[in-house]
Design goal:
Length: 414
Amino acid sequence: MIGLTQLNHIFEICKGDIGDHILLRININAAAEVMRLSVKKGLLAESDLTLMIEDKIQGYFSNDLVFKTEYSAFLVILKGSFEHLQKKVAIFTAECSEFELTRDAITYYPKLVIGYTPLDDDNGDAFSRLEYALNKATLISGRAFWYINKDDPDYIEHKRKRLGLRQMRKALNEHEIGLFYQPIVSLQGVSDLPKYELLMRHYQSEREITSPVQILEAAHYNQVTQDLDMYIVELLCKNFSQLFGPKGERLGAISINISGPSFATPLFCQTLNEMVMKYHVPKEKLILEITEDVATTQIDDAEKTMQSFKNLGFKLALDDIGTGSSNFQNLKKFPLDYFKIDRAYCEELLTDKATRDFVTMIIDFAKDKGKLVIAEGIPDEATLQKLTEMGVDYSQSFITGRPSELVRAEKYDN
């Protein structure tokens, strides 16, 4: 089997050869397929099929450069343009799909995933495109092939988001993340301790503090939102006693947004609880916010997860009410403390009757179930007055309190 250093050397030689070159990656029988056939005879059949396909590859691409990179993975360098070679790849895939192997009356079929891309000046980017092409092929079909060129808009967006992961890791590793908080203000004259929502900010420098939109996007795309969630939770917990008192005696509650992937991770509840206990933070002072679309994706699982958090002593809020399914039969199952009305409904409240009717239903439903209602992004005094009259309990809006710094990023906390 050939290594990366040797491949890079071969690539450089190919670039000196006049004409275009295409990089082709063939994966035979993905690991998931082998595991599915986890009986001894099935695995033997898979091994025999792999050898059959290997013979086919060596014969079909005999005039090209063929390298075995893993037991069931091959790299082929073909000379020519995509247009010239497209038919050749399609014929190879079709011929391989006709292969079959029978063992003890069970017939096994090969599973091929093929990606290909031009070989150009940037070897690293060519490998990245090849990996992206393989992922696309895997998502499309069991025996699919996919071509990606360097100008493909989907790949360019993928690359941007992958680079965003590096920026996110840098922000976490170099402690460039800080916390802001926005007041959640009572509208019904209730005199209680202050409530806030926790907001993340990226400290680009001592004075340049930005919204973390790109970091959040990268975390979600690269499936590492739990890392970000736990960083935020720990940053709050480490500073909690100093900010609000050892038992949170200067705080009513502070809400923390929990991402969908974290919420759906079985161990997240335990991990979060251990973190909070480590710093002796009173759990009843923490409101965990979950968006409605996440909560209503898997109703039964969401209900169990919420109940686990409630049993540990956390408060719960359902964020962005109205943006998900808004099935009240489902929502009533959730052990929530707060409903949050999305800003889009607040902005249309005075101009659209259907919006007012919907907001009224939310408020009536919440009151009937003993929940509190928070309205986000109230645009003006007239809307604030109307929502107060309708029975909304709290406002989280610029009009009632703008976000301010709570915990400065450690990198710039001099």
